[in-house]
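G., the chain you wanted modeled:
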Amino acid sequence: MSVDFLAGSWIYRSFRNLPEILPRIDPDQPNRDDLAKWSRYLFGQGEMELRPGYDGSLAGTFVMGPQLEMDLSGSIIQDNNRTTLLWHAIGRSGQQSDGWIYQYQGDLVPNWVDGKRQTDAIVGTVVRSVGHDDLAPLATTDRIAPSGAVVSFVMVRKRFREARELIALPGLLLQKLSSKHHRLHHLLWHFTRNFWTTLTPKQQAAITERGWQPPRPQQPPVRGTVASREKDNGAGEDFLFMHREMLLDVRRILAANNLPPIESWKDIPKPNRSSDNADGFAVPPNWSRPKLGEFKVLEMIKSDSYMLSRMSFLERRFKDPEYLRTLTLDQLGAKLELQIHNQMHTRWASQPLDPLTLQPLPEGRERYDVSDKWSEPFIGPDGKAAWYDDLYDEYCSHVHPVFWRLHGWIDDRIEDWAKAHGNEVSRKVVKEVSWFEKGRWVRVADPWVRGTNHDHRTMEQVLRILSGKDPEAPSSHMHFTGLKLTL
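Predicted structure as tokens:
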């Protein structure tokens, strides 16, 4: 199991280890003395935000109230099927917690095979390393715990609030972006250029016949000079242009309906693992993808250390005019796509849920399944309308609200590049999009954004060809009668 599974917010409660039966509390007529006994049994409570490192380290914060915050540091040990957490908490200077030190040891509770509605929990014990008086109103004589006092604790995970719950896209925009036609276009644009060189000649011919041959297959960037590498083919420019056109289309829709624009990220958000996800940009917990064997990669990219090292380095690099002056527009696009863009999608992706059952889908949507359930609205875990918006999946990533923030950041790097090159590049309009004249720094005169035949039937045929199936065979996709909304 990935240690990043532990990331997020946990409600913490600790209890004195009293060897006695506490009185029952009548909720309608509570007895004051009985309540007092229960209050002395509860030792402490608050909210812990855990930030695991993919190397097994553990950091975080513990908030028990105003001016009662502590910083966490420790490690995670995995032995067979057991996950143990060892950490300490240190009070913050200038707060009421100043000088407090506690040490914790807890184990992640395994789920029961036949259990229902289970909640992730960590149980263990905590020792007070430095003695101090408890704070009012619990500062009674029998609650003053000296150094070495041990109590038990239980931590229960808070549900991670998804970005769609906090910064949802406007309904009329969702109606367009979540349509099967729009999803197919975005999927096929990526799939045909990404997989073209892996297809058989027969598949390539069938896709070309239907107008979806990518003029420039995706080409990975390289570091330094590699003599055997093929000459830059312009695919990086296609990547930048296609997404700029998408951004322009969305901005026009919002403006035409007097809706506020979606603000691009000026800077990539700093590490935040809070389950409350106040601004919509907290990093969701990792999950295991057994079939793809990718959980270690996900774990690394979601970690604080990845953001503070690799991603922060790349952000500075792609804003540096000295570096940008060395790149063609094609090189900029290829490097942005494969060195930081893909990782941004991964970092802010959540484990997807099946729209029909709301059960976790560790592997996500099957690559070539475009049945109706993936494109129609459904009722999400929060009881509100939702659309399948896996940021890790080209069929639906553009339905996720973070997509437009991160692609706005990508698009702004084009302007940084143009500014760095000054009068060495000239502007022009291509397909109503502000772009650049072909020349020394620009390879492509007419970037590729879609196939020549982008009707619904043709796109489904192309998808079936990519999957290795007969494009003319009847579709076996089930029909999904989902939630019908007036948007």
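The longest strand covers residues 68-79.

Shout if anything looks off.
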